[in-house]
Design a protein that fits this description.
single chain; OB fold (Dihydrolipoamide Acetyltransferase, E2P); Elongation Factor Tu (Ef-tu), domain 3; four-stranded antiparallel beta sheet; 302 residues
């Protein structure tokens, strides 16, 4: 009688296990991750303002930190003063040529007067030749002076160009002294504090999007033809108290090359040596945590 009871209990256990195994059957598994962005300083200086805390949600475009720009403003002021000094040495071409221009106008009037006298035979042609020679000389002087003054002005303008470039570079550094949050997300880590000295490339904080996570899983070559970019899959995750919750994920990327199976990942064929990585974009309502494990079935909506 005792043997029949043991056999009966064994059959019930096998039945329950089989039912449970059927319920928990999945095609692939993976973990949730996100793209983390480390925001670093682009200039050297003291942090005069830093408005973040770990765990804080920040919108894209929010001003996060300001790095002291006093020296940059002084450099910019000095460059502008140098430019103004160069500009003050530029010749006023029109004014400096006005005297010669007036002489030319006077000579042209005198030429007309002499021409009229010559026509009426009241003056000789020598006077006309003399005024023509004088007018020609004045015009040559005008052209030579104009050319010389323009060369001088152009040279000074060329001296200004590198200074203007330096002002633009300085202004760019001033703008980069304002650290603006690049993406909407949650601050994962904070690496600096107000009044600390920072440097070019030194991390200030790390931020990541948590409203949409990446679910990375691995499948065998036999499973690969069942999947395509844009396909939706059901991902089963722990909901607490032994319960499961299903979330939807859309395939955004499929690796074109196989790789060895990661030790932490199991596929439907657990012994497969080579697998393909696949990423799914999964909207997160806050219930999914980074590093959480998930199981996937391939019979979802496509």
């Amino acid at each position: 009688m005792k043997k029949y009871i043991i056999l009966s209990n064994l059959l019930i256990t096998v039945f329950l296990y089989s039912c449970n195994s059927g319920k928990n059957k999945f095609d692939a598994s993976g973990t949730f991750e996100t793209i983390e962005t480390i925001v670093s300083s682009e200039v050297n200086g003291k942090i005069t303002q830093l408005n973040i805390e770990e765990g804080q949600s920040i919108e894209q475009g929010t001003l996060i930190a300001i790095i002291d720009t006093s020296q940059l403003y002084l450099k910019k002021k000095q460059l502008r003063a140098t430019i103004n000094s160069i500009l003050s040495r530029q010749p006023e071409i029109a004014k400096q040529l006005a005297s010669i221009q007036e002489q030319i106008f006077t000579a042209e009037r005198e030429k007309k007067r002499i021409e009229n006298l010559v026509k009426s035979e009241a003056a000789g042609t020598k006077q006309l030749d003399d005024i023509n020679a004088q007018l020609s000389l004045l015009k040559k002087q005008y052209i030579a002076s104009q050319s010389s003054l323009e060369i001088s002005k152009n040279g000074l303008n060329q001296d200004i160009i590198p200074l203007q470039v330096q002002i633009e570079q300085t202004q760019d550094l001033i703008e980069k002294s304002k650290i603006v949050n690049p993406i909407k997300g949650v601050v994962l880590s904070k690496y600096a504090e107000t009044n600390e000295i920072t440097a070019l490339g030194k991390p200030i904080y790390k931020i990541a999007r948590l409203d949409e996570l990446i679910f990375r899983m691995y499948v065998s070559g036999d499973q690969l033809p069942l999947l395509k970019t844009g396909q939706q899959l059901d991902i089963s995750i722990d909901a607490g108290n032994g319960e499961k919750k299903e979330v939807k994920g859309k395939i955004s990327w499929i690796s074109s090359e196989a790789e060895f199976t990661p030790k932490t990942i199991q596929t439907k064929d657990e012994r497969a040596n080579l697998v393909y990585a696949i990423k799914l974009l999964v909207p997160n309502d806050g219930s999914i945590k980074l590093g959480m494990y998930g199981e996937v079935r391939f019979n979802s909506e496509k």
